[in-house]
Amino acid sequence: MLHSLVSGIVACYSQMYIAHAIGRTVDIASPELISACKSAPTDCKEIQQHLCIMSHSFSITRVLNSGNLIWESQSHGEACIYYTVYQFYGQNYLGYLKIRNGLFSHYVHYRINGEEWREIAFEEYVLTFSRMRTERIFDVGFPEDHIVRTTEYTPFGTPAFIYNPYETYKIVKVQDGIVNIWESNSACVNCEYVVVHKARGEPRMVHMFVKDGDTYDILYFDRIGTKWIGIQKADFYAKLGELDGEITRL
């Protein structure tokens, strides 16, 4: 289904956008090829899809990324006719090449991590694609309404906000701008909700409910300057009491 959808998109773009590859080798990191790629819309703002179709005037037998070999033809007549890259939160994440040999064609799939393109089986590609559509990053300073529900409560002096992801999504990373607070280390670990305690409109303390398979844990964090430090439950509520006192005195 993924490939048939993309093939339909490619058919629409093929007459309008043709990347003219040079010779028989292309480097997909080259500015010329990047500028020739066109973006196709997706239904997720966190995911961008980029297509690049090779000119029929050339037979592309080698594909590189920053000089590193990604794919090479293994027989006469075998050539790459297009490639697709999916970006997740602005970073290259998944990709595949369509390879044609005469009347037959097949796909080569990749998991992308920085400059590394690692070839993977189709089953792993589908699983990773599914995770890309459901896994999300939560920013305590800029919660996004399409990812989480928000409940506000003020049990003491400090305003607190509970953020629950919608059923469609799993939170796998919690951050404050570019500062990482917590990140999942496994496909079965996710954050079920985040509670942000604010002072003067800024996140000051956070606790979160983390699910790991059938087990659960509550993690507590305090902001020290621009850093977030994990602390024990007793220390968390002691500091929260101090913060409540500060807010009450204002």
Topology, please?
Blueprint lengths: L1 H13 L10 E3 L3 H6 L1 E3 L6 E7 L8 E4 L2 E5 L5 E11 L2 E11 L2 E10 L2 E5 L1 H13 E5 L8 E6 L6 E6 L4 E7 L2 E5 L5 E11 L2 E11 L2 E10 L2 E5 L1 H17 L1
Parallel strand pairs: 1-4, 10-13
Antiparallel strand pairs: 2-3, 3-6, 4-5, 6-7, 7-8, 8-9, 11-12, 12-15, 13-14, 15-16, 16-17, 17-18
How would you describe the overall organization of this protein?
The protein has 250 residues and is of the alpha+beta class. The chain has two domains: 2-120, no CATH class; 134-249, no CATH class. Helix content is 20%, strand content 50%. It is built from four helices and 18 strands. It has helices spanning 2-14, 31-36, 122-134, 233-249, and strands at residues 25-27, 38-40, 47-53, 62-65, 68-72, 78-88, 91-101, 104-113, 116-120, 135-139, 148-153, 160-165, 170-176, 179-183, 189-199, 202-212, 215-224, 227-231. The strands form four sheets. It has a six-stranded antiparallel beta sheet with strand order 2-3-6-7-8-9. A hairpin with a 2-residue loop joins strand 6 (78-88) and strand 7 (91-101). The protein is elongated.
Strand order of the largest sheet: 2-3-6-7-8-9
Q: Which regions contain 5 or more consecutive residues with pLDDT less than 50?
A: 4-23
**Terminal-residue CA separation:** 58 Å
Main structural class: alpha+beta
Beta strand %: over 45%
Shape: elongated
What Rg is obtained from the alpha carbons, in whole angstroms? 23 Å
Domains, number: 2
Assembly form of the protein: single chain
Q: Write down the overall mean pLDDT.
A: 88
Percent helix range: 10-25%
Helical stretch tally: 4
Largest sheet: 6 strands, antiparallel
Number of strands: 18
- List SSEs in N-to-C order: HEHEEEEEEEEHEEEEEEEEEH
Protein name: Signal peptide containing protein
